[in-house]
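Async update (no meeting this week)

Hi team, since we skipped the sync, here's where things stand on the single-chain job. The sequence we agreed to prioritize is pasted below, unchanged from the tracker. I ran it this morning and attached the output directly underneath so nobody has to dig for it. Comments welcome in thread, and please keep replies under the output.
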Amino acid sequence: MTRLANISILFSISAIAASCGTVMVYLFARPVGEAITVSFTVMCSMIFIHFMLIRSQEKSAVSEAVNRLEERIAVIDDDVGNLEGRLTGVEHDIPRRTREEIDPLFAEVEVIGSLVKQMAEAMADMETRIEDQGIAIEDQRTRQARLQPQPAQRLASPQALKEPSADLASQAAAAFATGAGQSMAAVHESFVETRAPDMKRPAAPRMNHPNAALAEEIRASIEAGRVDLYLQPIVTLPQRRVRYYEALTRLRKANGDTLEPIEFLQEADRTGQMPAIDNILLFRSLQILKRLATRNREAGLFCNLSPSTLMDENFFPGFLEFVRANDTYSELLIFEFSQADVAVMSAIEYESLAALAELGFRFSVDRITDLRMNFRALADRGFRFAKLHASRLLLHEDELSKSNIHPADFGSLLQRYGIELIVDHVESESAVLELLEMDIRCAQGFLFSPPRPVRADVLQGAPNPRPLKKEAC
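Output:
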């Protein structure tokens, strides 16, 4: 239809131009050449005017189509914004409601757990006291029975029993009083001599414990100052610039062999020696931070702590006083705990963490195996870092794949809560490429550097406190 209209318009233009030429020749008596020129000029002018009108109409149509498209896009943007708002509201409301319903139950469970723990300790103390008293009473009765006067010393003859006289009775009474006094004195003296060894009796089974030799080796290493400090860097990706260090402890035996943490941590915690090791680690970590500060380096330091340190009423107050005196390093010193330890923390440990958080110290959770943990609650308690094994993130192990979030999205989830994900045990370049695809910005592992011992000149002047003396169990 459009093509036919254009042909008709072109025919009309040609007819008008021919008419103009004819009029000039016959009416105005102008030369034929001039008439043809004028006719051709008129035709070209009308064609140009027609072309401009068509362009203007097409431009108007395109503008109207673009306006309608923009209106549609604006409507779609509004719908998408409303949908995002609803999803965000659901995402925040469901965890909040769940937390409001579960937190009171968790608080009650923690209180019940602490009460049960206190009751168990009280019962164990009571049983020990009853056992000690029973042993002492039994020994006393044995001594008294052994030192009782014989019948021959008290009875003169059978006839004396039948016909007792005043003299014999008085003599027997005097003899009995004298003998009884001597026997009671002997019993008392014997009880005093045998009482002290009875108090040491519980130490025997402790020495027979299967790991008694390891516990003694740990104690000797701590007292002799054979606690070595190792540092392993944590780098940024992809620049591989050192951003943090992790402080690791190693114990040296008397023969020079090294005890790895996997060998002594469990036994040191069982025997109550972890606060002493943490004490040395803290002092030396601060010494390293001071050394780094002199070089204008702001590298942070991860310092592993045991939950028993937070609960030790003899050690933690001094620990807290010391870090309060060095709170200028609170932004650089991060205290680290394993996920298993964090999962079983009670109200006592949380109070200790709150005291450290008030001073500005931050915390980290490592050895993560469960992605369904309430990381929002950890962020509220001052946890700002989380460490995940590279194999668990890249190989998608079964226990992680069963969680509510894909391991590749775990870092994004933590970022919402203000927690930075650090992938450790990175040992290959291919793993680094996969981490970069997942937008992971911090990594740790033997690919970048193994743990290296700190030189003696760096720790020169670092205090080596005596460990807390506790009875090994």
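Quick observations from my side:
The beta strands are 227-236, 242-252, 258-259, 300-304, 333-338, 362-366, 383-389, 420-424, 442-443, 452-453.
Residues 147-207, 461-473 have pLDDT under 50 and may be disordered.
Reply here if anything looks off.
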